[in-house]
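B., you asked whether I could sanity-check this one before it goes into the benchmark set. Here's the sequence:
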Amino acid sequence: MAEQDNQNAEKRLSVVKIYVKDFSFESPMTPDVFNRQEWSPNTNLNLRSAHTSVSDTLHEVVLTITVDAKEKEDDKKTIFLVELQQAGLFEINGYNKEEMNAVVGSFCPNVLFPYARESIASTIQKGGFPEFVMQPINFDALYQQSLQQQAEGAAAETH
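And here's what the prediction gave me:
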């Protein structure tokens, strides 16, 4: 029991800095798009995260979110496009490889997401469009799903 307490005491996880690494907003159909009576675009949301070790204990995690709104009648016409790389610098120490993968694949994106959601929603509104509400994302489930897909891929390669 004392050995386990020593292991837990050595584990450290803290947020050092949260920042926007890259941000882009495009609205190629303005001002004509504002003359429309109906507002019901097809909206696609894509997200991914990446991890880079800066030092032994310092790690950058980047959550990339792309929101693409297109006309329902013509999906080649983009109403607006938002691309954001919300990043964080995390001090992570004392975790084994499996735990570390879970921290950077689930915990860190969970920390970054509210910042990204606010930046995207605010920018879309400042672009003259109605409020855009991004639903919460279960990064724990997405991480588990990616582990399952990796395991299935590895099993397929061995057959």
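One thing to flag: Residues 11-150 form a domain with the Bacterial Protein-export protein SecB fold (CATH 3.10.420.10). Otherwise nothing jumped out at me.
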